[in-house]
Design a protein that fits this description.
The protein is an alpha+beta fold and 161 residues long. It folds into two domains: 113 residues, PH-domain like, CATH 2.30.29.30; 41 residues. Helices cover 37% and strands 34% of the residues. It is built from four helices and seven strands; from the N terminus they run αβααββββββα. The chain has a seven-stranded antiparallel β-sheet. Helix 2 packs antiparallel against helix 3. The longest helix has 23 residues. The chain is globular.
Length: 161
């Protein structure tokens, strides 16, 4: 399970006295305007009337938007979050196989600002540190595979709000 990989990566980076409270796997927050434009453009230029070709070109366009947004933000489309008693740690993850890479960001829980919005079954999370200007936008699930870890992370991030 991907949460186990995030847990193992975070365990190797803990500072003395730091303990992991929850881990989850999240996606970069989608730019819905860019995705709509890309999907519409792909559908308009897809050759013929084959819905399968149109669907594949639309999916490729949407994935391209996710990849571009992640590169622009300096993150990966899929990220692991480890919430410890001191920090919110954000890790790079590969999409296939879920291997965990380097730590992308670290937020001190005492000063981080966390905003969570519901959008259907998804949760949009924005974590920011006003003092450093660092921020990340994420999507998490409230049900399905991986929802247990996401819910645990969300519960910790919103407990003082």
């Amino acid at each position: 399970m991907n949460e186990d990989k995030v847990m193992a990566a975070a365990q190797g980076m803990l500072e003395p006295g730091e303990e992991i409270e929850a881990v989850g796997v999240f996606e970069i927050q989608n730019d819905y305007k860019a995705m709509a434009l890309a999907g519409g453009a792909a559908g308009a230029i897809a050759p013929g009337d084959n819905p399968a070709v149109g669907g594949l070109s639309g999916a490729a366009a949407l994935e391209g938007v996710r990849q571009a947004e992640a590169a622009h933000e300096g993150v990966t489309p899929t990220m692991g979050l480890a919430v410890t008693n001191e920090f919110i740690r954000v890790f790079a993850m590969s999409e296939l196989g879920g291997s965990v890479g380097s730590e992308l960001m670290r937020f001190n829980r005492d000063v981080a600002h966390v905003e969570v919005k519901k959008l259907g079954f998804n949760r949009h999370i924005r974590i920011s540190d006003p003092s450093s200007g660092q921020e990340v936008g994420l999507n998490g699930a409230s049900f399905g595979v991986g929802a247990k870890g996401d819910k645990a992370v969300l519960a910790l991030l919103t407990q003082n709000q």
